[in-house]
Design goal:
Strand order of the largest sheet: 3-2-1-4-5-8-6
Order of helices and strands: EHEHEHEHEHHEEEHHEEEEHHEHHH
CATH class of the largest domain: Alpha Beta
Radius of gyration: 21 Å
Largest sheet: 7 strands, mixed
Helix content: 25-40%
Number of strands: 13
Strand content: 15-25%
CATH superfamily of the largest domain: Vaccinia Virus protein VP39
Number of helices: 13
CATH topology of the largest domain: Rossmann fold
């Protein structure tokens, strides 16, 4: 790399995207986050003085001093666009993608990277918003393209699909999308299955892996069946069982209570030959088990904070601040570090190529 790249980080959260960008050799000179505990987490893991804990609209004037940084990156809150939410275009949180571009207009970076839910990148419903965003980016002088990426292809053991809007200033490259796609392809690395990822942490309740979610797992009286034992709704709450021989579903920001995904501890550590959930599902399907409202066996237990941290590819020693619920939220809201690193490396390589 010819020189150290600098960046402004927006909607920073606990700093998952920052960890990835820093690994790609990018120095974050300013970070901004509204949630107090997430800002504290960021400060506990990053150099002092970088984080400003405030509403992004209140820091606009401060940002002018960073004009000319190489990058602006961040993941504005996505609840307004999420299929899991109300998908309301008038939700204030939906407008923050344009606030992101307000910062780009002030700071004039060489490039920007904005992460959001896949829906914003592909759904017909959001086509007018997408078009408005891309037109605004173009008016600011950026050639911008959305890329839909799956975290499992970038060394993250989680089926998390996201859109990354990547914009390059003054870029007349007619093959930008093709060239950036190739650079992203070069960064691909298959993720380990959940069992292999978590094995070294050890059982829940140990020093390495404290038990942090005590929400009981109970059966639904009226289960909603699917073909896969991991897809139906036959437990109460929205926490789903994780198939440890595969990848986890997207870890939600609503973790901490009964929306926290769970695993079969005995199957995870080889004390049982079959996942209890698979046997229960089979029994429901063939009618040998009648559903009744009761607690599930103790071998089924919620994901711990340490396990969620590892699935999101934060470093094991990353320090989180706040109560347990707030910590789970910070983890679920984060961009997986390994995924962010792959995107950052592709963008850096593209910018380096432009310099030559």
């Amino acid at each position: 790399m010819s020189k150290e790249f600098t960046a402004v980080s927006l909607f920073t959260g606990a700093g998952g995207m920052d960890v990835g960008f820093e690994r790609a050799g990018i120095k974050v000179v300013f970070a901004n986050e509204l949630m107090k505990e997430a800002a504290q987490t960021y400060n506990a893991n990053h150099p002092a003085g970088v984080m400003v804990n405030d509403d992004v609209n209140n820091v606009m004037d401060q940002l002018s001093q960073f004009e000319g940084v190489d990058l602006v990156f961040g993941g504005p809150p996505c609840q307004g666009f999420s299929v899991a939410g109300k998908m309301d275009p008038d939700d204030d949180r939906s407008k923050l993608i344009f606030t992101f571009l307000d910062v780009v207009e002030r700071v004039k970076p060489r490039a920007f990277v904005m992460e959001n839910v896949k829906a914003l990148g592909i759904l017909e419903k959001w086509e007018p918003v997408r078009r408005k965003y891309l037109e605004r980016a173009a008016a600011l002088g950026y050639n911008c393209t959305p890329f839909i990426l799956n975290a499992t292809e970038f060394n993250v053991s989680q089926k998390r699909e996201r859109v990354f809007f990547i914009g390059i200033r003054g870029n007349g490259d007619p093959f930008f999308e093709y060239n950036m796609s190739n650079l992203l392809e070069d960064q691909k690395k298959k993720a380990p299955i959940v069992r292999d990822l978590l094995a070294s942490l050890g059982k829940a309740g140990t020093d390495m892996n404290p038990n942090t979610c005590t929400a009981k797992i109970t059966f639904a009286t009226h289960p909603i069946m699917r073909k896969s034992p991991y897809a139906g709704m036959y437990f109460n709450g929205q926490g789903r069982p994780i198939n440890i021989d595969d990848y986890a579903n997207t870890l939600p920001a609503s973790m901490g209570g009964n929306k926290t995904p769970f695993v079969d501890e005995e199957y995870l550590y080889g004390d049982a030959s079959e996942d209890w959930v698979v046997a229960y599902h089979k029994g429901l399907m063939d009618g040998t088990i009648v559903p009744e409202f009761e607690e599930a066996p103790s071998r089924l237990r919620r994901l711990t904070i340490k396990e969620a941290v590892r699935i999101q590819t934060f470093p094991d020693d990353y320090v989180f601040c706040g109560n347990k619920g707030r910590i789970y939220t910070q983890i679920g809201n984060a961009v997986p570090c390994n995924m962010a690193e792959a995107v950052a490396k592709a963008v850096v390589r593209y910018l380096d190529g432009q310099n030559q």
